[in-house]
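Dear colleagues,

As part of the handover before I leave the project, I'm documenting each prediction I ran so the next person doesn't have to rerun anything. This entry is a single chain, and its sequence is reproduced below.
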Amino acid sequence: MQTTEASTPPAVSPADIKWQNGHPVSEGFGDIYLSHGDGLVEARQIFLTQNNISRRFQTVGAGESCVIAEAGFGIGLNFLAAWQAWQQTRTPEGAVLHFISTERYPVSHQDLSLILCRWPELQPLVDQLLAHYPPAVSGLHRRQFDGGQVRLTLYFGDTLPALDDMVFRADAWFLTGRAAVQNHGWWGPELADTLSLHSNKGCTLVADSLPAADTLAALASAGFETQPTSSHQKATGTLVADWRPRQQGSADEAAPPSRSVTVIGAGVGGSLLARNLAERGWSVTVLDRANSPGSGASGNSQGALYVKLGVDFNHQTKLALSSLLYSQHFYTEHASTDWHQTGLLQLAWNPQEADRQARFCERNNYPECVVRPVDCQEAGVLTGSQVKSGGLWFEGGGWLQPKALCQQMLNHPNIQCHFGFQVTRIMPCNGRWHISGQDSPEWACERLVLCAGDQTPVILSAFADFRFKRIRGQVTQLPAFSLQSPKAVVCGPCYVNPAHAGYSLTGASFDLHDPCPDIKLKSHADNLDQLESILPDIWTTEKPCPESLDGRVAFRCTTHDYQPAVGALTDQGGQTLEGIDMLTGLGSKGLTYAPLLAEYLADEISGQPRALPRSLITRLLPDRCRVPAQRQSA
């Protein structure tokens, strides 16, 4: 019987569905996923109609959002019904539907497809949901649909801990009996208080089954007033309530005073953030010292979508996994011309890495669609190369064209770019941020975000010293005729991408104490030696001469703990500075981290539900990167 979570993280136990007389039934709980009537009609009549969803959608303004929260995603029928209703409503520019749901036992992709095919009118939406349905791993998953107008936040795990870990306020609640069955004891005072903390003014709640008297009392104590029972409620046995707290201690999300922002930096992080906010209806100005987008660390012609998942499933690993899964979804949806999903192999290239991978496999349980071990023979088949060892195969991995991605992201009518703007100083004055530039007129704005990579410490020098590291990286560009190009990304002490447009990129060097911006022959030679150590038969004739090769030098920015720095900037006393945020410290994993972190920071800036859980947000705050002595003396 299905009663406990999968014992090894990060996998969660899927719903154990059996089919009885054409109906999907949970084997462990005896719960029927579909009633004998029309489930879509019931979803509309019970949850949409009684929560006044149509009226709510019609009153959402430009740049605003409507937030529906649900306990018990199940087959996603309530989400699909709400999504369809949203599409049928003429919403203004930048309006967003956020649908937030929890699920303890996710329905498998195969079962979901079999069940949802019953409603042909939903098929276009079902196809999109299935294409981006998260794998069965624990935690928070964010997905975008309809160009970001619809955002699904799906948390796989127990309902109460999931709600406590998420940051949002709901305009309407959908509570399903299935969630009550799967989360023993959840109908009670703790749930009522949690719902209250996550409710906006004017929030309504609909449950498709009547709770016990003590639960009704707990809901009333938390501010939920039961509406007069209608004949429909009597017939369906549903509960409808309005949230009217006696004390207004739980305030609504603060609406931003204006919807304009200046972003310093046109690399991957800055470009993705600018586009994210622009699609939510914000007016965005981008300043960059170069003459075109993606000219710093984001300027390479190829970049691998790469993370190294930890042996222990800790918070660092959770962030890496969430970023990897979200970026794969994001690039497939938004950057199809620049994204090449070839798969990626992390070789067990030496005894130490082989041991690490063995311990990783022993201690973790990942779905095979995320990562799986492969032996030497299978690794060779998957990559089309003569590899020396097996490794970890990431089916959804691949590579991107970063510079082209930056250019594409900044091509939006709500984004204005000013290139050749070398920022020398930022200072607050009279509620605005004043930005001074070398040989450029001063710029002032109410909201500012620093996405300046390795230039961030220089820009912030007037405020404090930060523990950021500037790391030189040189890549080597190999002519396609010189190597037997792999058909997937191969990683070891270096990486090599499949050939594209006549060239294949390998590298990059890791020069922590080298400030030289020029191409070095030694770095080329080191890159070639590392590549040859993992793919000894890669050359078509003989190893290229370093003097004959081109390449590129850029400087990564990372933090003292090698985790990104994202969120509001604080003063030396730890107080939040109004109107300034940071997105930096992505190191060599910028292509993987940037989409999710840009999504989260855009949520934060616009006051919308967050794409990261609290447990990760607190570990990314920039304040931790201050030099400790300054914090102690402040």
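The longest helix spans residues 315-334. The chain has three domains: 38-243, 260-296+403-467+561-633, 344-395+469-557.

All the best with the project,
I.
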